[in-house]
Specification:
The chain is mostly helical. The chain has 1 helix and no strands.
Length: about 45
């Protein structure tokens, strides 16, 4: 039995994109903080 999802509204899609971006930015900030304040020898990339 196939359950069809109702198509997402544009607003829902934008919300998901924004939350994914927010996660990426938080992870980058952690890496930067570790690099610049944690005395890592090499950049994280």
């Amino acid at each position: 039995m196939i359950i069809e999802e109702k198509p997402k509204t544009e607003e829902e899609i934008i919300e998901e994109d924004l939350s994914a971006l927010e996660l990426n930015i938080r992870q980058l900030k952690v890496l930067y903080d570790q690099f610049f304040y944690g005395n890592l020898k090499q950049p994280p990339w």
